[in-house]
Amino acid sequence: MSLSVFTSRYTAFLARLFVTCWFLAAIFVVLSPVSSAASRLCLDDLRERHEVGPYLEILEDPSGKRTIEDIAAPAAGAAFSPVSALTVNRGVSNSVYWVRFSLVQSPDNLSAATRKIPWLLDIGWPFFTNAQAYMVSDSASGVRPKVVPVLFYRVFRPIGSPLSKERGLLARLPELPAGDQKIYLRLHSDSVFFLHPVVCTVKSYLEGTTLRMLWYGAYFGILLALLLYNLFLYFCLHDRSYLWYVASIAAIGAYFAGVDRLTFEFLLAWWPTDVLRINLTTLSASLIFLLWFARTFMQTWERAPQMDRLIKGLLFGLLGMLLLVPWARISFLNQCYVLLGILTPFVLVATALLCWRRGYRPARFLVLSWTLYGFCGLVYALTFLGWLPFNYVSFHSFQIGSALEAILLSFALADRINLLRQEREQLSHSERRHKELAVTDSLTGLYNRRYFDAQIDLNIESADRLRQNLTLMMLDVDNFKAFNDRYGHQEGDRALAILGKSISSCVRGKDVPCRYGGEEFTIILPGGQNSTAVEIYERINKELLTHSFGCGGGDSTYVTMSIGVAEHLPGEPADSLVRRADQALYEAKARGRNQIVIASREPEAVFFSCIDTPSTDTQPHL
After folding, report:
1. Beta strands 152-153; 81-82: pairing state
2. Catalytic member of 405, 519, 567, 587
3. Mapping DSSP to helix (H, G, I), strand (E, B) and coil, where does residue 440 land?
4. What is the pLDDT of residue 24?
5. CA gap 386, 384 in Å, rounded
6. Active site residue 69
7. For the segment 389-418, what is each residue's pLDDT rounded down to a tens digit?
8. How far apart are the C-alpha atoms of 581 and 473, rounded to whole Å?
């Protein structure tokens, strides 16, 4: 497939994905709860958690110069607009926002003076650079309203750090007097403006925190398991792509540790803007490691050189943004990273698709994993831009996508291991096949002379070391030259091929049958004696009688063999054993062919023969 066709198809895929995201955005909007008809939040002891969103009103203060007195004045009330949702999402914004809601203690409940369990205000987003809260009591006309500051506390303190009262996400509401009270919040963020306020009891907050920690434990547990597993594979295989994958997992885990407010809850007593810069640094590192993993894993410089150049461009862009993180404004950095975060997964998906179409099988898992990763990243990015509502699913979509991506990438790495194993098996099989061809006679299928020369020395050495028997048989086709002259060389080759199969079928599994040269054959019998050779001779003789050669009809014949046998003497070298077996073979031919002659174990060249008769231990000496 040409690059232009691939580009057009991929563009169509991106268009369909974009339409799908907008469709999901519409679903998010439809499913988001609308504002309540009530104008104030009524606190009662029957519920331990109250959503504030339906009662919220919001006012943007671009200059940030308004005070609580200005905002609480009756003239400022008309400037507030209702939120009409459980959450507030203004995207990337540098403005100061004032939000307010009315609440009242239920008359059926205990009075504020006798209520022992306090109410907590949780604003749901910890990265505000400034968060101030005030409780304003309604008063008679012409009387200045009473303003009571409400302090925010951080629920957890970093190790070795005091509990902060200046910044956090949780406030304890003061005792509520009779009548309506208004809570005003002045909020400012250098990055994105998310708000999900709830009023709850300590018990409800701790229960929610427990569920939150269980989710974080499951997520970071998956990442840690995959990190350790692939680190182990790196040390075993020394494949750098596993190391880049491990680095990507570690960096994305550090990023979400900051986004999930675990970093400054338990580790660092830093301001939210500092934590945000650390988050952007780890996000850059994660994307850089992921792109480098893609290059090394798919070897894009060979399989997709054009996409490889695009990946290099993204790498340089991310490195440039990484240098800007300590200096640039958080809002500007967020917008840049939203763009890079959307672009990177789609480049990776396109590269994986191209490599898959070009025959790289593990890329199919990359296509699936990075498609999910890109889709979840797109939802996350649209949430940061303020185009999707801020809720648990949209905010954690990228985190869910990163976990799925890590799992599916592990499948890709495992598939690559399996592919490498298959390639090694094929290579090993090919090597074995080449070795077999190097030591195998192509006509008969038996081992060749080279293999015989190597094996006879090894078997003699083993027999001497283990003090075991060793016997050598030498076989020669009778009158083979006359056979070729009469029936032709093709029929002679057929006879040798059938003879090779007959010998292979008649020997034991540990025996070594070889074609010694021309029409001459040898069989090494490890652990065999003369009687073993006679038994094999009888089986070969019977097998040959089942095959006739020639032109058919009356002009056909049978092939016979003469065989010489020598049993290895302790300390005897290979050339001596071969010479004695060869002498026995010539003796068999001199005696009239079609018989077996066994060399005596005595130093003199004395033989005894067995001519087409059952083997016994009382063969007469000749």
Report:
1. unpaired
2. 519
3. strand
4. 55
5. 5
6. no
7. 999 899 999 999 999 998 888 888 888 788
8. 7
